[in-house]
Amino acid sequence: MDSRCQKGYHLRLSPRLYWLFVLGIGFFTLCFLMTSLGGQFSARRLGDSPFTIRTEVMGGPESRGILRKMSDLLELMVKRMDTLARLENSSELHRAAGDAHFAADRLSPGAGLMERIQAIAQNVSDIAVKVDQILRHSLLLHSKVSEGRRDQCEAPSDPKFPDCSGKVEWMRARWTSDPCYAFFGVDGTECSFLIYLSEVEWFCPPLPWRNQTAAQTAPKPLPKVQAVFRSNLSHLLELMGSGKESLIFMKKRTKRLTAQWALAAQRLAQKLGDIWRDQKQILVHIGFLTEESGDVFSPRVLKGGPLGEMVQWADILAALYVLGHGLRVTVSLKELQSNLGVPPGRGSCPLTTPLPFDLIYTDYHGLQQMKQHMGLSFKKYRCRIRVIDTFGTEPAYNHEEYATLHGYRTNWGYWNLNPKQFMTMFPHTPDNSFMGFVSEELNETEKQLIKGGKASNMAVVYGKEASIWK
């Protein structure tokens, strides 16, 4: 093959290489645009505090600058390729002066290629201008929206929320007094105060520019489950835990009375028949066994210490479990906080989630602990609490205002509960409910009480007054 044919073969491949080069440039440009502009307009990023309002345009000036540089680079490439093409064309025309047809075929793709490269450069320049306009418009809109929101972050004068302005003043002065406020997003700004006081607490009206869908959407209630009598108490023994002498004593008593509890469940099931009973979720918090209360009972269990309270609590747990309810048992403050959903801090804020329990059985130690760590949720859910009270609390001591006015304030009173929420060990306070303990053998007097329907938790075991546990 002569040298002329070799040159012609080489020259016919050059346009294809040019096309590959152009496609590469176009693909690179497309990838760059997708990467640099794909995340430009983001109103919110994952991990931002729910109380931080921002509409950001990330990297706007940088993207505009890079687009301009790309446009300039393409223009420079056009000029250089045009110069090279002219030099190559003049050289080839001298070499192939005798072949006019070949020269025309050689020049036609080069001319079209230059036009296409110029069009690409113009398109990139147009894109840069449009991006610049969009970014400027977005920044202007963001500044207007932010200015409007700042204007709305003022305590409103709404007669439906008379305490709002006072609570905002309190938050200004003391929002750092408890870490729980920062946990809920309070950062010292007026907006964060109002968002907290309207969405976490309920002292201020909702802000109109806030998304109220999440705040108003209440969790769906769990489907009702039927309570089924249980006769095997092995799982209850696991729920009661271990590590304390008092718990060991309570578990021994429960295990020893398993047969009696099974018999009681069988008799009560026969009495009630097919009556539906909703399974309740119940938290049993034995406050006097927590380390925070001193737990003075556990070290004395094997030394002749008082065992009445532990007998009562063991029988309460057994009765609730045999009746088929869902139980959670806590004997430490940390377990209590975890089960209630207490936010981190000193207990000034409400619970993070709705209370998952239908009832809470506790004592005065546990009552004090819940009030200290539940914030406003304590008042919200106090009707679900049942207080195991050895000797009972009469209404004069329970009503805070009356007790204060008449000098009846004590360490165990003024809780403002319904007197029936106090459950006594001995039935000598008629305003309270009765929650005794199980007698393994009945004497004649107890049999007469059961027969007359006047017995207490003996009725739980033998089927009387079952409506209390439905």
TrEMBL record:
Write down the membrane topology: Single-pass type II membrane protein
Domain Glycosyltransferase family 18 catalytic, by residue range, is: 180-470
TM stretches of this protein: 17-37
- List the EC numbers from the record: 2.4.1.155
Q: Provide this UniProt record's keywords sorted from A to Z.
A: Glycoprotein, Glycosyltransferase, Golgi apparatus, Membrane, Signal-anchor, Transferase, Transmembrane, Transmembrane helix
The Gene Ontology terms for molecular function here are: alpha-1,6-mannosylglycoprotein 6-beta-N-acetylglucosaminyltransferase activity
Subcellular compartments: Golgi apparatus membrane
Tell me the Pfam families matching this sequence. Answer: Glyco_transf_18
Which catalytic reaction applies to this protein? N(4)-{beta-D-GlcNAc-(1->2)-[beta-D-GlcNAc-(1->4)]-alpha-D-Man-(1->3)-[beta-D-GlcNAc-(1->2)-alpha-D-Man-(1->6)]-beta-D-Man-(1->4)-beta-D-GlcNAc-(1->4)-beta-D-GlcNAc}-L-asparaginyl-[protein] + UDP-N-acetyl-alpha-D-glucosamine = N(4)-{beta-D-GlcNAc-(1->2)-[beta-D-GlcNAc-(1->4)]-alpha-D-Man-(1->3)-[beta-D-GlcNAc-(1->2)-[beta-D-GlcNAc-(1->6)]-alpha-D-Man-(1->6)]-beta-D-Man-(1->4)-beta-D-GlcNAc-(1->4)-beta-D-GlcNAc}-L-asparaginyl-[protein] + UDP + H(+)
| Biochemical pathway | Protein modification; protein glycosylation
Its GO CC terms are: Golgi membrane
One GO term under biological process is: protein N-linked glycosylation
Enzyme class at the top of the EC tree = transferase
Q: Which family does it belong to?
A: Belongs to the glycosyltransferase 18 family.
Protein name per UniProt: alpha-1,6-mannosyl-glycoprotein 6-beta-N-acetylglucosaminyltransferase
Q: Which organism is it from?
A: Carlito syrichta
Q: What gene codes for this chain? A: MGAT5B
